[in-house]
Amino acid sequence: MNFDIDKLFLLLESEYKRFETPSVTKIANLIKSNPFAVLISTLISLRTKDEVTLKASERLFSRADNPFDMLKLSTDEVERLIYPAGFYRKKSLLILDISKYLVENYQGRVPNSLDELLKIKGVGRKTANLVLVEGFGVPAVCVDTHVHRIMNRMGLVNTKNPDETEMVLRDKLPVKYWIKWNEYLVAYGQNVCKPISPLCSTCKLSDFCAKINIKRWR
DNA sequence: AAAACGGGGGC
DNA sequence: GCCCCAGTTTT
């Protein structure tokens, strides 16, 4: 990164605090303390808005916040619990599949290495890295659509491939920033650096922006 | 009626 | 690398 990464991080941090909403943060923090919850809520979040995901997760985890309890539920029950998130059939089957896999292979615990996480069905690099960062508090670079879009707009990368963005960040971003990077950028991506019609005129990060791919992402 | 919400996997 | 997947909520 050519620019002052420390300054950028501080800006992101202060912006993040502006976007915090107590109720959402409370649920999110509850999920964060449990790697299994992080894993499952990430699957629920597929093609689903964040508030809906959190509400569905909260309902599901109040019934079962570990693989053993999850396997006591039928697919119908899981479907009903996560219903508003959409794609509930596919998701409920996957949730129970993964629960079974974790019980059979890891005594019901979520593995804490990238390689082992990637062996789980339905888990790719984004999900695996998020489980490491949020579930285990291990430094990892998690590139989701927000991180990927903003890094492209800033000119750090110029690629459609999130894996490439991940590799560049691993190389250029100091490890001490890995834990919070995804969280801050997701918040910024949702509130300011949005996919369509981003709020560039009031953006605090414009000094860092290469101003490419602004109009529309995707 | 149309758009928004995203990541994994198959080829 | 490109395309497919498939359902809700919001506008």
Please provide a written account of the structure.
The protein is an all-alpha fold and 218 residues long. The protein folds into 2 domains: 5-20 and 141-208, Orthogonal Bundle (Endonuclease Iii, domain 2); 33-136, Hypothetical protein, domain 2 (Endonuclease III, domain 1), CATH 1.10.340.30. It contains 12 helices and no strands. Helix 3 (35-44) crosses helix 4 (50-63). The chain starts with a helix and ends in a 27-residue tail after the last helix. The relative contact order is 0.13. The chain binds a DNA duplex (11 and 11 nucleotides) through residues 42-43, 45-50, 52-53, 83-90, 121-127, 144-145, 160-162, 195-196.
The tally of strands reads 0
Return the domain count.
Answer: 2
What CATH architecture label of the largest domain applies?
Answer: Orthogonal Bundle
Derived structural class: mainly alpha
Question: Could you say which overall geometry the principal axes of the C-alpha atoms support?
Answer: globular
